[in-house]
Amino acid sequence: MRRVVVTGGAGFIGSHLAEALLARGDRVTILDSFTDFYDPRLKRANLDEVARTGRVELVEGDIRDRGVVTSALAHADAVVHLAAMAGVRPSIEDPALYVAVNLDGTANLLQAAAKAGIKTFVFASSSSVYGNNTKVPFHEDDPVDHPISPYAATKRAGELLVHTFHHLYGLDTPCLRYFTVYGPRQRPEMAIRRFAECMVRGQPIPVLGDGSSRRDYTFVSDIVAGTLAALDRGRGFRIYNLGESATTTLCRLVELLEANLGVRATIDRRPAAPGDVEETFADIGRARRELGYAPSVPVEEGLSRFARWIRSRAP
Ligand SMILES: NC(=O)c1ccc[n+]([C@@H]2O[C@H](COP(=O)([O-])OP(=O)(O)OC[C@H]3O[C@@H](n4cnc5c(N)ncnc54)[C@H](O)[C@@H]3O)[C@@H](O)[C@H]2O)c1
Asked: Probe ligand 1: pick from 5, 6, 12, max atoms within 8 Å of CB?
């Protein structure tokens, strides 16, 4: 049994991870400030669901607050750091906020972890660090020096900061580059959920670009399994891609949603957004070999599960 602090544990991925940790008998502390990036009531509802699996300690506070961070980490064995300002497009509107939360917050956590003698610090990075990399699939050793959004730049800078703390204090610091994660409780502004909610309400869906952009969509249970594996087996400073290692065009995604929701989409076509990348596609060989990561939910199956969840919520 380990005592694990999950920052951002009230959010989409964090709440699923907290459930999985509790289910296997770990003790969980969630540190979350319930930001209004999306409706905080959704995050409270996530925690209600987590509480059905087991008891969690909740520290309601901001990762930029050193006092809060120090006390949250005081008796922990490991940290999984998911709290962040997420999302590419809003980061273009308010880059300073992304830098403050994603970098100052991460620095506070790393410093507190080092002081508390915590051994393992798992960092949630993002496929967005690859920018407009044209060599596919993306490998962890590909160049990542040209991020194309402030969000991506803060995630890459976060990886560098994590490396520094590994070097200075010997922390084990797996950095996980998540590729577009979806599933129940997905953030409401993300395309899959936004599209699905519009479709069941009979509203048009805003499709950016000509529909040919491609994403490696990763079901949340696979991301959770990969994150647990990194927590248990991650040694030293190591970067891992966590994706399904398959790509789906935006057009195909809409077709799959239509088939699973039983609704025909009305498309409101809009220009491609600056900061969005054309394609993401994960090479997951390293995570397979070193972590035993084995994603098992292809997008057809994942969207069917997601559609059932959306339907179960519809009034
Ligand atoms: N969802 C994806 O597709 C995806 C892809 C790549 C990387 N990631 C990364 O995974 C992590 C989790 O993403 P998610 O989709 O679950 O997002 P989310 O917004 O649902 O969860 C993030 C949580 O962090 C909390 N938080 C934000 N700022 C905070 C602060 N200053 N102090 C304390 N708590 C704060 C929020 O309240 C929220 O509950 C993020 O680091 C994100 O960048 C997600």
From this structure: 12
Ligand 1 environment, Cβ below 6 A: 8, 10-14, 32-35, 37, 43, 62-64, 82-86, 101, 105, 124, 126, 178, 180-181, 187
User: Domain 3-182+219-245+281-296 has what CATH class?
Assistant: alpha beta
- Say how far apart CA 279 and CA 214 lie, in whole Å: 5
Please report the pLDDT score of residue 71 as a whole number.
96
Q: Hey, what long-range contacts does 45-50 have (CB within 8 A, 24 or more apart)?
A: 46/10, 46/11, 46/12, 46/15, 46/185, 47/9, 47/10, 47/15, 49/15, 49/19, 49/185, 50/9, 50/15, 50/18, 50/19, 50/22
Active site residue 293: no
Identify which of 100, 37, 116, 30 has the alpha carbon closest to the alpha carbon of residue 64.
Answer: 100
Distance, in Å, from the CA atom of 76 to the CA atom of 65, rounded to the nearest integer, reads 18
| 264: Cβ contacts below 8 Å, ≥ 6 apart | 258
Any idea where the domains of the chain sit in the sequence?
A: 3-182+219-245+281-296
pLDDT higher at 274 or 303: 303
* Number of neighbours of residue 83 by Cβ within 10 angstroms: 27
Cβ atoms of residues 157 and 302 within 8 Å? no
Helix (H, G, I), strand (E, B) or coil at 88: coil
Catalytic residue (choose from 98, 130, 151, 293) = 151
Q: Is the pLDDT of residue 37 over 80?
A: yes
Report whether 282 contacts 239 (CB < 8 A).
Answer: no
Residue 277 has pLDDT above 90, yes or no: no
Residue among 88, 72, 90 at smallest CA distance from 32: 72
- Between the CA of 5 and the centroid of ligand 1 the distance, in Å, is 14
Q: According to the model, what pLDDT value does residue 315 have?
A: 59
How far does residue 87's CA lie from ligand 1's centre (Å)? 9
